[in-house]
Amino acid sequence: MVTTLIRETPCFGIYFLTYDLLTRSMGCEPEDSYVIPKLLFAGGMSGVTCWLSTYPADVIKTRLQADGVGGVYQYSSIVDCVRQSVRKEGFQVFTRGLTSTLLRAFPVNAITFATVTLVLTYARGSEAPKDCEPAALGAAHHTQLQQQSQASSM
């Protein structure tokens, strides 16, 4: 459904971007004694920003998905659904239920992201590179090759 794509695409972009930015800015390294609280915070905030960014689209998506239950359709399109919803309920239609959604989003996403990150970290073991940036890995490899060629030419 088009409304699902309208909601999911930016939501997941914001979701993962927020998590990445927060974990990088807080320095979430496996050896850090506060890594778990940092991961929980970053995951929770990622869920909150995701929902904040797409809640109005979720309202429309949900209304369109429920439309036609009982055989009666009231919306002819996405735009029609927005118009009728705002006309009948005002712009607050796009924020109704947001508080409970955000209260649920923080702990659910905090636990989800922290669990996945910790499982992946421990599954990779000590062989995992500290910095997963391709440019940084390439630069380190390039520097190592330069050192080897200098050593062999002496």
From TrEMBL:
<dbReference type="InterPro" id="IPR018108">
    <property type="entry name" value="MCP_transmembrane"/>
</dbReference>
<comment type="similarity">
    <text>Belongs to the mitochondrial carrier (TC 2.A.29) family.</text>
</comment>
<keyword id="KW-0677">Repeat</keyword>
<dbReference type="Pfam" id="PF00153">
    <property type="entry name" value="Mito_carr"/>
</dbReference>
<feature type="repeat" description="Solcar">
    <location>
        <begin position="34"/>
        <end position="122"/>
    </location>
</feature>
<keyword id="KW-1133">Transmembrane helix</keyword>
<protein>
    <recommendedName>
        <fullName>Solute carrier family 25 member 29</fullName>
    </recommendedName>
</protein>
<keyword id="KW-0496">Mitochondrion</keyword>
<dbReference type="InterPro" id="IPR050567">
    <property type="entry name" value="Mitochondrial_Carrier"/>
</dbReference>
<keyword id="KW-0813">Transport</keyword>
<keyword id="KW-0812">Transmembrane</keyword>
<dbReference type="InterPro" id="IPR023395">
    <property type="entry name" value="MCP_dom_sf"/>
</dbReference>
<keyword id="KW-0472">Membrane</keyword>
<dbReference type="GO" id="GO:0031966">
    <property type="term" value="C:mitochondrial membrane"/>
</dbReference>
